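Comment thread on ticket #2218

A.B. wrote:
> Attaching the input chain for the structure job we discussed in standup.
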Amino acid sequence: MVLRHLTSSFCPIDCYATDKSLKKDDDLIGAPKNLSAYFATLMVDFLFILIPMTLFFTILADWAYIGSFLGFMLFFATAAAKRFGSPPDLEHRIHSIRSFLTSYRVSTMLITCFCILAVDFRIFPRENAKTETYGTGLMDLGVGSFVFANAIVSRQARNIQSMNWKSALKSTGPLILLGFGRIVSTTGVDYQVHVGEYGVHWNFFFTLAAVSILTSIINIRPKYCGILGSVILIGYQSWLIRGLNVYLLSNERGTDIISQNKEGIFSIFGYWGLYLVGVQLGHYIFFGNNSQSASRSNKAAFIKTWLLGILTGLLTLLLDRHIERVSRRMCNLAYVTWIASLNLQLIGGFMLTDYIPGSKISALEEAFNRNLLASFVLANIFTGLVNLTTDTLSTSTISAIFLLLGYTFCVSMIIGIADFYGIRLKFW
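C.D. wrote:
> Ran it. Output below, let me know if you need it in another format.
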């Protein structure tokens, strides 16, 4: 969040437009007319956001805590200075919720896009890689955080009439096509796929499509979504501890389609429950009190976010110790509460940027925010290309750093230029 403040001072454009719903206006694309100036802005964002991220997740991983401490010291210094300055105006208060939600969503996507390639190199710390069965690592946050980040700002969370199941099926068509496209592409080039993650044929695009369709079929008000989600999660967890977990974690597979893709199919219950809980949390924290003043609403949202983040964290500890350990592979109840806790705390951290003078959304954040899923697809394509052309495990440290920097540069510039020309791919 401190990096976002630093880049905003170099940004020659106001990177977001007014939105009365406190969410990004997906129909208005406020890109600047000068491509050279916009490209220069993206370069500054790349310099102050993506390069430090690349270094602190690889060769400077041991210094990450020190870097975080220095960043918070800088934050507290700027926040203290702001206390003696003029109070923020009403417009700043109105936009601040949208601002930190955008930063939160984009940061999770940037880290996810970076890690899916970085993990293939030896310079990436092994403790940050995905766990096989039980446990937690940085990369275990990716898929769950993506579902949660979309849930809290979804149409359901904002109490906007949801699509019926026919419209949802039509809108998720591209996701299904992406899922089949990934199967064809990985099979055609004999690309190595970890079967234990989703199954033989299943992938995350199918999971997203399933969650979208199920949510549209059972269309309920946002304030009841958490109840339904909790019932689904408790029922699914009860099923797991009664023997389903042994079946899902075993290496034995039958010839039928369900057995071949057991991890992906059964984890739908966990991701659907996570999505529904995220919908109610988003409605309760950010979109359910539109009648309040902006300043009062921001303070209430801040308190709710941190309180719920701490409570879900404590619940995760209890579930992990007494019910079943956290497992991304099964998306069990402990994994759902872990995802909710860490994401709420991350949102709460970004809410602190309200105390930083001059803080605003960077051009890079705005570009990724308008094409979140498209950026994930693009990152997967580049990851596949790098792995097909490079022996990542034998790559030297210097070569790995330059490859990762080139990868993040290409992805960010393509997404930025697409945003400049108003190209948006939204289908979830």
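A.B. wrote:
> Thanks. Noting for the ticket: Residues 1-10+35-77+111-120+366-427 form one domain.
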